[in-house]
Amino acid sequence: MRRPFNFAWPAACLLLVALTLYVRREQLSQLPRPASSFLHPPGEVKAEPSAPTAEVVPTTTASVPSPTHHAVLPQETRTAYVNAIMNPDAADLPRLQCPKLDASRYQQLQATSKDVPDSTIQYFFALDLRQCVALLPRLIGSVVETIRFLGPKACALSVIEGNSDDGTGEVLAALQPELEALGVTFYFSTTAINPKKGDRIAALAELRNLAIQPILDNNNELKYTANDTTIIFLNDVAICPEDILELVHQRVHLGADLVCGMDWTYVGNDPTFYDVWIARALNGDSFFEIPADGNWNSAWNLFWNSADTQARFAAHQPFQVFSCWNGGAVFTAAPLLEGEGEEQVRFRTVREGECAQGEPELFCKDLWFRGHGKIAVVPTVNLEYSDEAGAKIKEAKGYTSRWVGGSEWKDEKIEWQAEPPEKVKCMAVYSNQFFEPWNQSLVPGT
Ligand SMILES: *[C@@H]1O[C@H](CO)[C@@H](O)[C@H](O)[C@H]1NC(C)=O
Ligand SMILES: *[C@@H]1O[C@H](CO)[C@@H](O)[C@H](O)[C@H]1NC(C)=O
Q1: How far apart are CA 247 and CA 150, in angstroms?
Q2: CATH code for 57-437?
Q3: Is the pLDDT of residue 48 over 90?
Q4: Strands 271-273 vs 258-266: parallel, antiparallel or unpaired
Q5: Which end of the chain has fewer CB atoms within 10 angstroms, the N or the C?
Q6: Which ranges are annotated Low complexity under compositional bias (predicted)?
Q7: What percent of the chain has pLDDT over 70?
Q8: Nearest CA to ligand 2 atom 13
């Protein structure tokens, strides 16, 4: 049996870089820092490697012991947040501007237009949030607006908050009466689970499982069903209602098991695809090539070795991948609820002999294993992790409606490939990348 970490000590530092890149996303605060990166678009020559200029906000690991049990926000500030979240037109707190919803494109998604029992929760929104109060008017505001559009009684919102000292938990807790009045089922809890301590991936997987727990509770089996419940699992992204609805729409239209958008980061002046540690194309390779020294110089050259995928991406049409998360995913509840015990897919950490990777990649891997490999990227949806950078990325890549609202636009289908790639790139550390069988360690004894 192969050992997962059979590399020397220096490589362990790079592992930290890779993990930090990944974990940062959960922390919202900073841009990732690819090792010795200097990014430039094709053709543009830069004399010097320009170090990323973004401020790195120091992260305090051991902050407030009891994160949310005493109020940190003045009452009126908390009220302003709640008001902004519940009222899309409220303008007293800054947020990414979003286009008005094109109701006609998405009306078939509305709960009332479906032949599903009233007791069923058709849309389950799940979020794990930490220290992101400034983003809540946009992020949760978009979720609430989407819920209003889809039909609140057929929706649930589940939020797990932890280790924030900026008032994130307080604002979320204060939403309870408002959301109840709206008629949406709201699950909210605060946890001390901290991915910065101990096994990060295990902690992140545990947090994700906590967010979807209501679906798995036996007494909820009438509410949540394999084929009628869709899960919308969002990271701390600046997302518009139309982004969420486009993902939900494409999942239905494509007949996909899971779809996600594209997420980006500004390491330099030009945006770079972010979730490169998790995402794998249908050929098993990363979305762009990262050489052993960890530089992101080829970040502009997405899908460099897959002409079909590259063409679909250029045309803004969805394409199948082995794995993606990219700031959020929309997926069927079926793999969580079908079968018994081990057959039911959950978020998890790596097993013995398995390449070190993030829980979203493992989730996709397990989906393939359970016959749910219709996984696609919807490249009209482009996300960043703050309101400011979100505005920049919408400017650079276009709002979703810029593409799908055009008179020329046609929703294409995907010709699904039934088989996963034989091998998938393991990138536990940049310095030691290799391909391993897509189903490594899935079957006991292998
Ligand atoms: C869900 O849909 C699949 C595919 O259409 C079908 O095979 C399965 O029986 C359905 N499951 C339930 C519980 O209705
Ligand atoms: C892994 O997948 C390959 C190709 O899909 C298959 O041939 C092989 O039998 C699988 N290995 C195990 C141990 O199931």
Answers
A1: 13
A2: 3.90.550.10
A3: no
A4: antiparallel
A5: N
A6: 49-68
A7: 84
A8: 443
Distance 227 CA to ligand 1 centre (A): 6
| 394: confidence class by pLDDT, cuts 50, 70, 90 | very high
| Dihedral (CA of 302, 385, 367, 357) sign | positive
Residues with CB under 6 A from ligand 2: 422, 437, 439, 443, 446
Question: Are the C-beta atoms of residues 120 and 228 closer than 8 Å to each other?
Answer: yes
pLDDT at 51 over 90: no
Q: Which two tokens stand for residue 226?
A: 């394999």
Give tens-digit pLDDT for 278-311.
999 999 999 999 999 999 999 999 999 999 999 9
Q: What is the amino acid identity at position 12?
A: A
Predicted TM-score (pTM) of this structure: 0.86
Tokens for 35, please give them. Answer: 């090792």
Q: How far apart are CA 142 and CA 412, in angstroms?
A: 26
Would you list the domain boundaries of the chain?
57-437
For residue 112 the two structure tokens come to 């009332």
Strand intervals (E) in 384-443: 423-426, 434-437
132 Cα distance to chain centroid: 15
